[in-house]
């Protein structure tokens, strides 16, 4: 790679990282905070929470990469145009490929990295995260709940115990169940235990208070009572794998006996085509950015900032891809629409670059913007010392 091409790659790469890391940190933080209940509800250590947060990171990297690359390319080329570097290159007779080549090499490398993360790293991270959450909630009653403290173990279900004995015996049970909006149930028992399967809580020598919506209360005493935990503990301790958790090889050749595949085969088809499409977005967005910002322009030209234009087109294409992907599950014909959108966008951008065409604003709109800008400047107060008259 030539010296000038290395210079461009270095500048675009630095700006790409500057745009990527803060956005990635913000999105990562919002996703991690949604899982904070793993610590508060299941009694896990902070180390477990950090591990889960690390496993979430690969799921958001492929989403952020294409847009960070758009920002890096457009901002770098705009700065080079402002410093007259692009103008000097054009005046010296340099070909446009001296800019296009290094940027596309970087974009293809980013696309390859996105493919690796989306199809290799992310499925493994998803499986590990699901397994971790499943194990954390697998045996809440018998191992996690602290003595003499209320603990929420499910929406509307709270438990307190006075003492934990050996052999999974629990003393002084107090259970509040408000999951049914028609009535609330409050259980008291001197002793209880969770059965080995974790599907029921066996309570002895207690009573249950049933309060209906009209404030009627009934009290029933019992010698033994079995509280059903099957809805809460179903599949806990064993992660259920979905289409997004599968490897690319499984999506290409799914197991016909897999329970989740038999229940939602169209979801696996959708996930397969999403992965085969999304990884190319960084390269396509790079082509769009080059068409918009890859040429020398006069500072007098009325146009939107190249970053705004490129991001607008990138978001529009990403939204169209997202819509087509969602429609594949019910309408297989959208598979062709999904690939057609990206192929058409890439071919149009390549054609414009090969013909050295510039994306310019229509003259009528340019004149209106110029007139509007002039009116705004006339209404702004003149700063002291900037009068038109010359000094004495």
Strand content: 5-15%
| String of helices and strands | HHHHHHEEEEEEEHHHHHHHH
Major sheet characteristics:
7 strands, antiparallel
Enumerate the spans where pLDDT stays under 50 for 5 or more consecutive residues.
Answer: 233-237, 385-392
Secondary-structure-based class equals: alpha+beta
Count of domains: 2
Helical run tally: 14
Roughly how much helix do the residues carry, as a percent range? 55-70%
- Quick check: average pLDDT? 79
Span of the ends, CA to CA: 57 Å
Model description:
The protein has 392 residues and is an alpha+beta fold. It has 2 domains: 3-136 and 240-371, no CATH class; 142-233, no CATH class. Helices cover 58% and strands 14% of the residues. It contains 14 helices and 7 strands. Strands 1, 2, 3, 4, 5, 6 and 7 form a 7-stranded antiparallel β-sheet that branches. A hairpin with a 5-residue loop joins strand 4 (169-177) and strand 5. Helix 3 runs antiparallel to helix 5, helix 3 packs parallel to helix 11 and helix 11 (281-293) packs antiparallel against helix 12 (306-328). The longest helix has 40 residues, at 97-136. The protein is elongated and about 95 Å long.
